[in-house]
Amino acid sequence: MAQKILIVDDEAHIRMLIEQTLEELEDEGVEFITADNGEKALHLIQSEKPNLVFLDVMMPKMNGMEVCHKVKRELGLEGVFIILLTAKGQEFDRQKGQEVGADVYMTKPFDPEMILEKARQVLALS
């Protein structure tokens, strides 16, 4: 079964940037799904069961914190690894991210190498 990565950001260029960063994983059978708001993301997480989600915090309809909380705390989808991406790097935001169940909290602008490395780690790709 193919592993899936869901990329969620309301800014198209950021979704594209992340997808381009992870492009080489396609050769290893990884499939990409994208969403431009929290509601769509939640729906896709439930229907597609991605292994890894790069989730922007500041989004319309439902923010990343709410999506993460629903997935981890209400739906109990512990197998979905969530990396919250945000422009806010304060300790308070980091703690909030942990409270809602985020596995990793990354601040923008992020290092593409780190994103790729983290994805390989999570999906157990060498």
How would you characterize the overall build of this protein?
There is one protein chain. The protein is of the alpha/beta class. The chain has one domain (4-121): Rossmann fold, CATH 3.40.50.2300. Helices cover 42% and strands 20% of the residues. The protein is built from five helices and five strands, in the order E-H-E-H-E-H-E-H-E-H. It has helices spanning 12-22, 38-48, 64-74, 91-99, 112-122, and strands spanning 4-8, 31-35, 52-56, 81-86, 104-107. The chain has a five-stranded parallel beta sheet with strand order 2-1-3-4-5, sandwiched between helices. Helix 2 runs parallel beside helix 3 (64-74). The longest helix is centred in the N-terminal third of the chain and has 11 residues, at 12-22. The protein starts with a strand and ends with a helix. The mean pLDDT is 93.
Short description:
The protein is α/β, with parallel strands linked by helices.
Number of strands: 5
Under CATH, the homologous superfamily reads Response regulator
Task: Outline the biggest β-sheet.
Answer: 5 strands, parallel
**Which outline best applies?**
globular
Helix content: 40-55%
Return Rg in Å.
13 Å
Q: What is the name of the CATH class? A: Alpha Beta
Q: What strand line-up does the widest sheet have?
A: 2-1-3-4-5
Query: From the helix content, strand content and strand pairing, which structural class follows?
Result: alpha/beta
Q: Which band does the percent of strand residues land in?
A: 15-25%
**Which consecutive residue ranges, at least 5 long each, have pLDDT under 50?**
none
Number of contiguous helices: 5
Kindly give the count of domains: 1
